[in-house]
Write a structure and sequence with these properties.
It is built from five helices and seven strands. By secondary structure, it is α+β, with helices and mostly antiparallel strands. Helix 1 crosses helix 2. It binds coenzyme A. Coenzyme A (COA) binds next to strand 4, helix 3, strand 5 and helix 4.
Length: 182
């Protein structure tokens, strides 16, 4: 079941995310956030865009969210997207379904483009994003130092809808009808 994240999901989300902070360069965070910090991020992200989870009988199989790409006003029609699936639930089409639902909500909200910043190399994530229609914009060379080496980050983009002149303001996600449904 794909649904908006709730505060009670924070401990499971923190557990999924922790190894990417502590043991890999997939995230550039070096200290894994605890459940309280994740709960506060869910609250903050959900006010502007969307944080979704894929729940399987009480177990969080994965999560995806969209947050502002940059804060300056002219960027407000584009977002940055992030996805993490629990190891046990990868390779089952669940990431694709989670992103598809996120993108549908972003389209309805009035968002035009999604950007993903991916550690390079991360073959699974690169292939996954390209299979979802993302195309490479460019690579920031050696932009982060983690686990004893300088690391590259590639940026991929996906057009969610064709650009128009005078785009309407993005809708408030908390007042979108789908958010109110169970
Ligand atoms: C990347 C990730 C989110 C993909 O989620 P997933 O649920 O395993 O992906 P899906 O099963 O929905 O796969 C959808 C498509 O993505 C591609 N893909 C997914 N995993 C892949 C892999 N390991 N190698 C190559 N292609 C892959 C395939 O094209 C696949 O379509 P197919 O099954 O028809 O071949 C997941 O592997 C993950 O959480 N990885 C660790 C965290 C991470 O790197 N997150 C991204 C940070 S930028």
């Amino acid at each position: 079941m794909i649904r908006p994240a709730e505060q009670d999901d924070a401990p499971q989300i923190a557990a999924i995310y922790r190894p990417f902070c502590e043991d890999s360069c997939v995230s550039f965070e070096t200290e894994a956030p605890g459940a309280a910090e994740i709960a506060s991020r869910i609250e903050r992200v959900s006010r502007r865009h969307h944080w979704l989870v894929d729940e399987d009988d009480g177990v969080i199989a994965g999560y995806a969210y969209a947050s502002p790409h940059r804060e300056r006003a002219a960027y407000r029609w584009v977002v940055e997207v992030t996805i993490y699936m629990h190891e046990r639930f990868r390779g089952q089409g669940r990431g694709r379904a989670l992103y598809a639902e996120l993108f549908e909500r972003l389209r309805r909200q009035g968002i035009f483009k999604a950007y993903a910043g991916i550690l390079v190399p991360n073959p699974a994530s690169q292939a996954f994003h390209e299979s979802m229609g993302f195309t490479l914009v460019g690579i920031y060379k050696k932009i982060g130092y983690k686990l004893g080496a300088w690391r590259d980050v590639g940026w991929w983009q996906l057009a969610l809808r064709p650009e128009i002149d005078f785009p309407p303001e993005p809708a408030n996600p908390l007042s979108m009808p789908s958010e109110a449904q169970p």
